[in-house]
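Researcher: Let's do a round of design. I'm pasting the structure tokens now; please hold your answer until I've finished.
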């Protein structure tokens, strides 16, 4: 492993550990260990274990499915070890489970139908880079779910309030946008005449990446619901929607898709008009 990859690995695990410790303050304890910290260890551990057979087979087909399984595992363990749950905690845990099952199955079926994920074509050739990718998924799960975990594991139990209702409302809106936009794109690709073309109808006429906007919105909703129960170092978990937005808009989501689209359709007038009139992420009604 190169020094650069080793440093990236250490920094990733260190950040995850610090967030897990911060979120553990004032939370439930199991066997003398904070439940939030147990979940943090699991987030990395599950992905490291999954890396072993994936690396042996040089396959990324179960990468997204493992991510969803990690979310589900964390929610179940956090809920069981922090019981009894209040209504806020129960609803949040259920929302994360619903999201993870839906997105994980959607991505797995897409990779199965496509035969693979081109993002991993070069990465999986290097065990060190491939391992770092699985480690990154561990911190992605942990940081994304941080607000949900702090609600579920928190020793502070409060009745539903305006923060809970607003947060749940944002989650429902975000989830609906993500599901609808994914379905619209899937149906668009099923039409033979659309093969090799870009979608610019439905929610995709409002945003070039409406599914990503939906994901950012739903995790923001979870964080809003967590605000009344936060105290001390737990405020660090506000990183959740910030991390999701940064990762999607600046790192792994939007930049790669935009670069791919520009390479494929950048010379076409229709595509140039599309990117000039449709916002990158935040939706806006079509002009005219």
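Researcher: That's everything. Go ahead.
Model: Designed sequence:
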């Amino acid at each position: 492993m190169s020094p650069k990859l080793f440093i990236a690995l250490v920094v990733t695990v260190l950040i995850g550990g610090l967030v897990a410790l911060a979120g553990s303050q004032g939370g439930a304890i199991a066997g003398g260990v904070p439940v939030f910290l147990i979940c943090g260890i699991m987030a990395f551990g599950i992905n490291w274990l999954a890396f072993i057979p994936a690396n042996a087979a040089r396959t990324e087909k179960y990468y997204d499915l493992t991510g969803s399984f990690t979310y589900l595992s964390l929610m179940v363990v956090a809920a069981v070890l922090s019981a009894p749950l209040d209504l806020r905690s129960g609803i949040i845990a259920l929302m994360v489970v619903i999201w993870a099952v839906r997105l994980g199955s959607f991505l797995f079926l897409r990779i199965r139908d496509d035969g693979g994920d081109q993002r991993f074509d070069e990465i999986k050739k290097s065990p060190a880079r491939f391992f770092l990718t699985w480690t990154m998924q561990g911190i992605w799960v942990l940081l994304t779910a941080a607000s949900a975990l702090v609600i579920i594991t928190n020793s502070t139990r409060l009745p539903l309030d305006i923060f809970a209702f607003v947060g749940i409302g944002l989650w429902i809106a975000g989830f609906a946008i993500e599901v609808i936009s994914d379905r619209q794109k899937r149906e668009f690709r099923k039409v033979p005449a659309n093969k090799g073309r870009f979608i610019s109808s439905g929610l995709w006429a409002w945003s070039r990446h409406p599914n990503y906007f939906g994901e950012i919105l739903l995790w923001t909703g979870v964080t809003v619901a967590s605000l009344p129960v936060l105290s001390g170092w737990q405020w660090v978990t506000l990183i959740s929607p910030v991390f999701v937005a940064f990762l999607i808009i600046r790192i792994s989501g939007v930049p790669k898709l935009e670069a791919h689209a520009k390479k494929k359709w950048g010379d076409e007038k229709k595509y140039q008009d599309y990117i000039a009139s449709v916002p990158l992420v935040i939706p806006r009604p079509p002009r005219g």
